[in-house]
Amino acid sequence: MTLYEAARTARLNAHAPYSRFLVGAAIRSEDGQVFTGCNVENVAYPEGTCAEAGAIAAMVVAGQRRIAEVLVIADSPVPISPCGGCRQKLAEFADPDTPVTLAGLDGPRVTTTVGALLPGAFTSDHLEAT
Ligand code: THU
Question: Is residue 31 over pLDDT 80?
Answer without folding.
Answer: yes
